[in-house]
Amino acid sequence: MESGHDTSTSAMMMLIKFLAENPDCYQKVFEEQRKIALEKRAGELLNKDDIQKKKYSLNVVNEVLRLSPPIQAMFRKANADFTYAGFFIP
């Protein structure tokens, strides 16, 4: 359970940092969210169509996850040198 919490927190932190450092990007995300919110009545929940309208916001999230993945790659070292499928693994 802790791993899910930590990765979500890390991703949100990096998203907030990215938006704070890129005011033009923040403004575009804000306007996209505002436009959708103005189409809704007070207390009305988002539906699938509303979510699909958030194209720019989704692209921003995807870019932040690409630049700062919450889970880094884990590299391994072979115990002994060997050759596999014609490739030498040190």
From TrEMBL:
<dbReference type="GO" id="GO:0005506">
    <property type="term" value="F:iron ion binding"/>
</dbReference>
<keyword id="KW-0479">Metal-binding</keyword>
<dbReference type="GO" id="GO:0020037">
    <property type="term" value="F:heme binding"/>
</dbReference>
<dbReference type="Pfam" id="PF00067">
    <property type="entry name" value="p450"/>
</dbReference>
<keyword id="KW-0349">Heme</keyword>
<comment type="similarity">
    <text>Belongs to the cytochrome P450 family.</text>
</comment>
<dbReference type="GO" id="GO:0016705">
    <property type="term" value="F:oxidoreductase activity, acting on paired donors, with incorporation or reduction of molecular oxygen"/>
</dbReference>
<keyword id="KW-0408">Iron</keyword>
<dbReference type="GO" id="GO:0016125">
    <property type="term" value="P:sterol metabolic process"/>
</dbReference>
<dbReference type="InterPro" id="IPR001128">
    <property type="entry name" value="Cyt_P450"/>
</dbReference>
<protein>
    <recommendedName>
        <fullName>Cytochrome P450</fullName>
    </recommendedName>
</protein>
<dbReference type="GO" id="GO:0004497">
    <property type="term" value="F:monooxygenase activity"/>
</dbReference>
<keyword id="KW-0560">Oxidoreductase</keyword>
<dbReference type="InterPro" id="IPR036396">
    <property type="entry name" value="Cyt_P450_sf"/>
</dbReference>
<keyword id="KW-0503">Monooxygenase</keyword>
<dbReference type="GO" id="GO:0044550">
    <property type="term" value="P:secondary metabolite biosynthetic process"/>
</dbReference>
